[in-house]
Amino acid sequence: MRKLSFLLLLLFPVLAFSQKNKPDRKMQQALQDIVSRFNGTAGVYVQHLKTGAWAAIHADTIFPTASIVKVPLLVGLFNKIDKGELGYHQSLIYRDSAKYGGSGLMQFFKDSAATEVSVLAALMMSYSDNTTSLWNQRLAGGGVEVNRLMEQYGLKDTRVNSRTPGREDIWKIYGWGQTTPREMATLLIKIRRGEIISQDASERMYRLMCRGYYDETALSQIPPYVQAAHKTGSVNDSRSELVMVNAPHGDYVFYVGTKNNKDQRWEPDNEAIEMIRTISAYLWKHFEPRSKWTPRFRKDKF
């Protein structure tokens, strides 16, 4: 009996590792059912940081990042700050020549307006500001240097394509940036754990990611009093989202990537947006089954 107990004690770490590296079958099947109804190509990666439970659907397939590329750009910016080549509160002057349309606020600043690096970082992450994002890309040393950082952290497919020498052809396929669901989720996990640049830099980046304006997709399906770091990315044929939920029973991260979307409408009930909401709602209930909170998001109000 003692020999059997001793043998089981020796085998327990191996068995635990084996179980941890198997997908959560219930979650895997539920997500597969949701994704199978989507008219396009979708990929999902989910991981519960405390238990190790995970699920993956096309998790290693490359998807366009659209504005989610701003997470690697943030890492590149903080790399320069950490090295002392930039100051977080370093003063800058906005010029009209930097204006870029689309989302964001800085395009409406007056020429010669005073600003600073921290404002650029905050606008990029909170309002997905395109003008500040391109400015941050330059401050970070350009796409080549940001891509070198991604490779350093073991991310082989997460790359900045736009305005990056040598990536002109792949830019035509994926646009500004590219990633896989597993890799982008992994990057956020590393930030959460203080493993990107430094503990202080990771914590500041995480704070910035918890102040997003675009909260009507995945975030609409979790309680408003639960903190979540996130970033959305949207172009006509691709809508994606990265989320880390600081849930009561442990953090969980998920990335939903889409491409080749049939529904390209810019409406609240866009099919990809609805799928992301459905996945987010399912994951909240899966990881927090005792929660009595239910989503109240309405497309025609609030």
UniProtKB/TrEMBL annotation:
InterPro entries: Beta-lactam/transpept-like (IPR012338), Beta-lactam_cat (IPR045155), Beta-lactam_class-A (IPR000871). Residues 1-18 form the signal peptide. It holds the Pfam family Beta-lactamase2. Residues 43-258 form the Beta-lactamase class A catalytic domain. Transmembrane segments: none annotated. GO terms for molecular function: hydrolase activity. Keywords: Hydrolase, Signal. The keyword Hydrolase applies. It catalyses: a beta-lactam + H2O = a substituted beta-amino acid. PANTHER family: BETA-LACTAMASE (PTHR35333), SLR0121 PROTEIN (PTHR35333:SF4). This is Serine hydrolase. It comes from Chitinophaga alhagiae.
